[in-house]
C-alpha cells in the first residue's frame, strides 16, 4: 500500500514536471512560475526544499537529472525557447548552514525558435548528451565533449519531425546490440491524422539519426512518452500517453535479415491500451525494473499497470491525487501493486485477489 | 470633447465589428501602426512605407499612399505614427531624423503633409495626441527631450527635459536593487531580516550603501542567493551624467483621465510623470525597470494604472494614485517588451510584443503573470506595432511587423498556452515511490473528472473561449505529493536485500546455490529459491561434486566424456528440498512453486525433445509442448506427469530432471487445478494436504542404478540459458547475472557475449542506483566480460603529498622521490601502513584507519605533532 505524503511545494503556478534523481533521494520540480525547486529527502523521509531559483523567463516544462557521475546536474526547458543546464555548487558554507544549496547555470541552449517542450539526458553509456525537442518540430541532440566542462555543448544533430514535438524518450538500453534510439511524441492537434510517435535511430555508418519507425496507430496528440528501463531485455517497451495509455513492445528484427546499413526494423506490437483515465493522459512513468507503469490523466488519478505472465496488462492500483483511496469501478482499486515480486508475470498468474490478500 | 468620445462608444454599440484573421503584404517593413477612430482604417508607417489601409471584412485594401514626391525625404522615414482619436483627418509621424510631421488627410492636394517641427536633434521615438484636446501633440526623442506642440502654432509650446534633478544622491553612491519580483521571494527572506517592502510596490530597496569600490562589501551578511539577485543601479556610480545630456525618451503617453498629466519612459529605467503646465520639473520619478523602459500605456478605465514594459522582459503595472508609485502586477515575458497595450473591456488583460528574438504577440492576464492567456504567432519577424482595432472591442487586434505584413488577429483564433500546458507531473522513484504533482482543480474534487470530449484543444468548438466577462479563477496551482510505498508491500527492498545477501563466489557451487536459495526463500521469493535449488540439482549431483567445487573447471570433465558416476544421491538432496517445500507449504503459499514447477517442467521437456530424438521414449512422458512458456503451463498433463509412478523405469538414457520435477511436491490435484484454469482457483490448503511432502522422497529414491549413465552437465545448459533469458525479459536481471556468475563457465559459452555484457551493465547500473557499491564492485570483478571488468580498472587518480616533505609524490609507489622515505607511515604507530591508509588532506599525515580513528577520539590535532587540526570526512 501507499502512503501519501503531501508536500507544500509553494510554486506560484502549475507544476509541470517532477523528477527523481538517479538514486531517488533528490527530487526536482518545475513550474510555470519560471522556477525550479530541488528537494532532498531527510533521514525521516521528509522532503526539504534545498534550492529554489528562477531558471527561465517562461513556463518551465520539464526538469531532468543527469547521471550523478557527471555531478549534480539538472537540465530544464522552457516556453522561453531555451533549455538550460544547471550544476550544484558545493562549498558555499553560507548556504550550507541554512540547508540551502546553490545552483549555477552552466549553459543556455538557444537554438530553438519556439518553446522547448522536453529535455532528456541520454543514457550514461553514451556520454554526456542531451536531447531537446521543440514546438517547431525539431529534436536537437547536444553533446558536452568534455564531461568536466558543462559550459560547452555542441549541437550534434537536428532531427526534423515535421510535427510540433511535445515529448522525447531515450531508449535506455546499454546493449551494444541496440543503437542509440530516441522516441518523439507530438501533441500537434491539427485535424490531419498523422502518426504522432516517431522513433529515430542512430546509424554508425551515416553518423546520423534516421527514422526507424512510426507508430501509425497513434494519431491523437501525445503528451508523454517513456521507454521502460531495459535491464537486459532483448526488446524495448514504450509507453505512450495520449487520449489513453498505450504500451508497445518493439522487438528488433535481426540485422542479418534486414538489408545492412539501414535502420533497424522492429516488430511492433501494441500490448496494452487503457482508457480508464477517461480523459487525456498526461504522464507515464516506469518503475526502475520496467515492470510497472504509472500513468496520470485529467481525472486526477495515478493508475498503475502491470503485466501478468500472459503479457496481459492490468490495473493494479489507483491513487487519487489528494491521497484518498479510490473506491471506484475497479475492484483492484485497493489492491497492492506488489511491485516487489521478483517475477511479476508469474506472480500475476495468480488472480488479483489472492495477491492482494497476501500482502494485506 | 466628451461628447465626441461617447459617440464613438455608441457607434460600436450600433454595429459590432466584423472580420476575420487576415494579413496583407506591405512593400516594406513596418515600424508602427495606428487605427483611425472609425475602426475601419489603419495607417502603417516605416522607414520606407507610409500607407493607409481600409479594413474590410475579408481583406485589407490599400487606400492611400502618403509617401509622395520623387525624392524620398528623411522626414518620411517614420519611427512612429499616431492617428488622432478625435479628428479622422489628423495624423502625426515621428521621423528618424528628429522631425515631427503632421498630416491632414483633408488637404485637397496629393501631398497631405501639414506641419513640420524640426526641433529635436535626434530620432523621435514617439508621438502622442492629447486624448481630448484637438491641437495638442507630444513628442519624445532620443535626444532626451519631450516637446509639446500646439498645432495652431509653428513652434513647440514647452520642452521637458528627461534630466531630472536627482536630489539627495551623492556621487559614487550605489543603490542596490533586487530585480526579482517580490512575490517570488522565499519565505526565508523574512527570517533573514531583509527589508522587502510590502505590498510589493517596487523593487525592494535594500538601502543605500556607500560603495567606493564596486565590491559589495557593505552587503556582507546578506545571503548569497540574494546577492546574486542584486544589481547596482547604474544611474550614478560614475558620477552624474554630463550636463545637458539627458536620458533618451522611449515613450510618452498622455493620461486618459487626467487632463494635464503625461508619463514618459527612459532608457535608464526611469518613468516620469509630468504636469503639462510645469515643464521645469517632473511631478514624480521612479525606477520602473532594470534597463530601458521601452513603452507604457495608461489603463483605459483605471485612471491610476500605468503599464510599463522594459528590456528586462517585464511588464509592470503601477498604481499611480498612491503617494509613491506602487507596483501592483508584474508580468514576466520571454523577451524584451517593445509595446504594451491594454485590451479593451478586459480590466486585467494587456497585449505585448517584443522588438527582439520573439515574433509573437502575447495577451496576458496580469493576475497570472507567468503564462500568457493568448498568443498570436502569425508574424515571421519581430512585431513592431500593435493596436486594438476599437477602444471598446476586445476581440480585434491589428499588428505590423518587420516581416512586411499587416495582420488582423481575432482573439478566438489565438493559441492558448494555458490550455496547452501540461497540468501534471509524475515520476517513479527507486523503491517504488511515486511523486505526483497535479493541478489542484484536477485532484481536489470530483469535478476534476471531466469526460473525454475529443482533444481539449480541438476542434475549436470545444475550446474554452477567453470570455472577457469570465471571472478570474485565481492563480493556478499544483498539489505535490509523494506516494510512499510501504516497506514489504512491494517496495524494491527485496532487490537490495537479495543483492547484499547473495553469495556469488568463493564457495562450492552447491553451497552457493543453497545459500542463495535460502536467501530467496527468506525474502519470500519462492520461485527464485526453487530455481537455485534446481540449479544445484542440475550441476551438483555428487558425482560432479569434485569437479564443480569451483566455478570454472567444470566444462572439461564432462566434455571429455568421462563417464559420470551414478549421479543422484538423492538422500543428500532430499532433506533440503523437503524442508523447503514444507516451509512453503506451511505458509500456505505454494502458488509460485507450482508455477516454477511448470516452467521447469517445460524446460526439461524441451530437453527431452532434443535428447530423445529417435529414442523410444513414449511421447506421453513429455510433460508438455514446447511452443511458448505460457502455453506450457496448461499443457501440463496431470496424468502423464504424474510424479508418483512407482515402477517408473527410464530407458537407457536417463533424464534425471524429470524426476527432479517430482522433488517439488505438488500433488496431482494441484496440477489438475493448474491445468484447468490459468487463474488458479484451488485453495491452497487443499493443495497442501493433498500433496504429502513425503511423496517427493519416495520418488527421488529411485535406485541409483538407473543413473549410472553419462550425464553431461552441458545437457542442461540450453535450458538454463533459456531460463536466464526468461528472467532478464521479466525485468529480473539480478537473477540472470547472479546465476551467470555462480555457474560461470557452465553456461557462459552458451550465451553470446553481447547479451552477457548487457545483463552485467544493466545489473551494475541498478546496483549503483541503490548505492550498493560493494556488490557492484564484486559483480564487476566476477564478470568475465571484458567490457565490464575493465570498469574497475578505469583510471582513478589519487594525488598524494609526501607526509615528510609535503611535496607531491610522483607516481612511483609510496616512496617519496625527494626525501626517499616511505610516505605511508602511520603517524600513530610509526609503521608502514599496508592496506587501508587514511590521511588528512590538510597536512598529509595519516596512518592505519583504526589508529587514526582511535587517536581522533582523544584529540583533533594531528598525531604526527604538526599542530594541524586534522579533518576527515
From TrEMBL, chain A:
WD repeats: 8-40, 274-306
Any single Pfam family the record assigns to this protein: WD40
Gene Ontology cellular-component terms listed: kinetochore; lysosomal membrane; nuclear pore outer ring; Seh1-associated complex
GO terms, biological process: cell division; cellular response to amino acid starvation; chromosome segregation; positive regulation of TORC1 signaling; protein transport
Keyword Nucleotidyltransferase: no
Assembly, per entry: Component of the Nup107-160 subcomplex of the nuclear pore complex (NPC). The Nup107-160 subcomplex includes NUP160, NUP133, NUP107, NUP98, NUP85, NUP43, NUP37, SEH1 and SEC13. The SEH1 subunit appears to be only weakly associated with the Nup107-160 subcomplex. Component of the GATOR2 subcomplex, composed of MIOS, SEC13, SEH1L, WDR24 and WDR59. The GATOR2 complex interacts with CASTOR1 and CASTOR2; the interaction is negatively regulated by arginine. The GATOR2 complex interacts with SESN1, SESN2 and SESN3; the interaction is negatively regulated by amino acids.
Location of region: Disordered: 324-360
InterPro entries, A to Z: Sec13/Seh1_fam (IPR037363), WD40/YVTN_repeat-like_dom_sf (IPR015943), WD40_PAC1 (IPR020472), WD40_repeat_dom_sf (IPR036322), WD40_rpt (IPR001680)
Name of protein: Nucleoporin SEH1
Protein function: As a component of the GATOR2 complex, functions as an activator of the amino acid-sensing branch of the mTORC1 signaling pathway. The GATOR2 complex indirectly activates mTORC1 through the inhibition of the GATOR1 subcomplex. GATOR2 probably acts as an E3 ubiquitin-protein ligase toward GATOR1. In the presence of abundant amino acids, the GATOR2 complex mediates ubiquitination of the NPRL2 core component of the GATOR1 complex, leading to GATOR1 inactivation. In the absence of amino acids, GATOR2 is inhibited, activating the GATOR1 complex.
Any one GO molecular-function label of the UniProt entry: structural molecule activity
Encoding gene per record: SEH1L
Membership in a protein family: Belongs to the WD repeat SEC13 family.
Key word Nucleus present: yes
Localization of this protein: Chromosome, Centromere, Kinetochore; Lysosome membrane; Nucleus, Nuclear pore complex
UniProt keyword annotations, A-Z: Cell cycle, Cell division, Centromere, Chromosome partition, Kinetochore, Lysosome, Mitosis, mRNA transport, Nuclear pore complex, Nucleus, Protein transport, Repeat, Translocation, Transport, WD repeat
TrEMBL record, chain B:
SMART domains in alphabetical order: WD40
Name by which UniProt lists this protein: GATOR2 complex protein WDR24
A GO CC term attached to the entry: cytosol
GO biological process entries: cellular response to amino acid starvation; positive regulation of macroautophagy; positive regulation of TORC1 signaling
WD repeats: 117-159, 286-328
A Gene Ontology molecular function term of the record: zinc ion binding
Keywords, sorted A to Z: Metal-binding, Repeat, WD repeat, Zinc, Zinc-finger
Free-text function comment from the UniProt entry: Catalytic component of the GATOR2 complex, a multiprotein complex that acts as an activator of the amino acid-sensing branch of the mTORC1 signaling pathway. The GATOR2 complex indirectly activates mTORC1 through the inhibition of the GATOR1 subcomplex. GATOR2 probably acts as an E3 ubiquitin-protein ligase toward GATOR1. In the presence of abundant amino acids, the GATOR2 complex mediates ubiquitination of the NPRL2 core component of the GATOR1 complex, leading to GATOR1 inactivation. In the absence of amino acids, GATOR2 is inhibited, activating the GATOR1 complex.
Organism: Ailuropoda melanoleuca (Giant panda)
Cross-referenced PROSITE patterns: WD_REPEATS_1, WD_REPEATS_2, WD_REPEATS_REGION
Similarity-based family: Belongs to the WD repeat WDR24 family.
